[in-house]
């Protein structure tokens, strides 16, 4: 077995590093996390000439080895630790031809670590358009390296990278710059204290400046006798180092890099002028938002309906074709329903990530952040919080993942904490059914009350997010660097391949990550709902059958059977009158009787299911929590629905459907059933204005989504924040709903 | 009064002067914001903040508060 060459891809953000990675590895890549932190780790295998293979590691984008973020510190951590299993045999620095000067800063730092390094100059296809000319052989000589001129857009130069990696042993490892000149005495002392260590490496270890989250590090213990410099002195030296590096780079580029400024501007300037214009800028942003909403609500409903039906019929099929029993029920009602609950979100999530990927790849996202930063700041948020807050209207999970671009930890944390307030798509079914029940149909100024209520709820969610951000900003005492430096990359036509990879990766990680939790919860719910310990539960069938025999059906089912039968007989009579078919009186009675039997059988099944649920573990839980939900105007059944929807909000409608034994998810029937429900104490409809508004407000504010909690745990790396979210949001929801019900009652 | 990047008008350029140690984040220096380099104000956000600059060929957005820490000499408009 031949040894794999270990390669690390390093580069500034926006240099096309990911494109190079995709082209080197193809689909043979693996995305995971660095242990303990949520920085993404991308690896892949690349086939090289002469049967050699390389293991490629795509490191997070960084501007230098002076770390200011968690992502960047991962790079430094690796390059400083020769014992790390991923420590590269060769580093490949990706640079962008238009920003070569800045990109070379990172290159010289890595070169000085005595790691063999190849320089890739990407976006070569833009050279003629931007008036750039390069002297490659001069650059290779001065930088003491090998260069591959690449265009990932056209797919050229990739073979050259592969050849250079194969021959990495021929690369020079002598440093570019002698950094010790910035403080000769200091470095002399360092050398005397640590005679065996590389000086530049020592320097990086000393100046490491990461205080985002604890990362396990192997520090070089500095003896107390050694006179360390103060933080500000170190910072001054870092500045000196940066200036020194730029002097070196400028000297080289003056000879090897020519740019014709007259060609360079143009499109970028025009686009910037329009996209950040004080009117057009916001208008265009607004139109793009509308398109995204349209896609998420409207376009994705087709695949979602399809998925819904697919799982419903799969569940039917399992019930029909497997022998009846606990196992079959578990598959059909627990597991399949659970998986369906995850898969149904794929279209929305995929659409959302598609748009976000397009906006990011094209360079537009930076302009949005630029437009919105000032507006968001009073609330302790950053311009970069806009993206998650918008995504949150689809689903809080990808939205929280999208906060990773915020480099300020406090701003990022506040964004993560308030994002679940925005009205996500899972609240929609709950809102729609309750609004239809309790809000009257009239109109004001041509707008229906119902539509206005829905809009109000969206605004309420957004308002709650902004308001709590403001409060959090006041009370949270987190020291975090508050600088805002954002590169405004040049506009690019998105590479389809990259967009597809992103959508695929993000969707996959959603389905597998959040999916496990949703699946587990739905199995638990199924178990609690379909098992009970009392005799009432085990003998439910006999008890209900006896009751029907002695007392007849419940009022609801009685009237339901009568109505159905009546409309059936009218339809039948109509058909006979129109001579669709001719049958005798006997057959008519026969047909009506058959219909009645089938209706009765259905009603009986539904009543048994309802009785079973009432006496299942879940039913007992519902009765137990009734005293808590009573002041909000809910009975035990709504209580159960609220409880189960802590797993996911949309479970509410499904749970009520089971409880009210409608047996079908069709909205109209549940709605009618809910409208007919009477409060046994007040003798008034259970769903009235007071309890309806109370429910709407509860759903607007409560943290009812296990998957979101799980993602927050993953992103903040502690249970503290999701727990705080759960307690605060749910308590707030409870209080608001309580006040609303007690006032409106 | 000293002139800083925050005083630039759109399209105006300046040369960065020496600045006090440690007031600017190292990240900004890495982006090329170093004494002697040319800086151009490309765009100002609609609410006057942040600002969008081109320094040393790198396009970045920074907040006004930070911009007012970068001292410079404005290059007077000269007819081409």
From TrEMBL, chain A:
This is Ferrous iron transport protein B. It is a multi-pass membrane protein. GTP binds at residues 11-18, 36-40, 58-61, 122-125. One of its GO terms (cellular component) is plasma membrane. Mg(2+) 1 binds at residue 22. CDD domains: FeoB (cd01879). GO terms for molecular function: ferrous iron transmembrane transporter activity; GTP binding; metal ion binding. The lineage of its organism: Bacteria, Pseudomonadati, Bacteroidota, Flavobacteriia, Flavobacteriales.
UniProtKB/TrEMBL annotation, chain B:
It comes from the Bacteria. One of its GO terms (molecular function) is transition metal ion binding. The keyword Iron applies. Residues 3-74 form the Ferrous iron transporter FeoA-like domain. Keywords: Iron. InterPro entries: Fe-transptr_FeoA-like, FeoA, FeoA_core_dom, Transcriptional_repressor_C. It holds the Pfam family FeoA. This is Ferrous iron transport protein A.
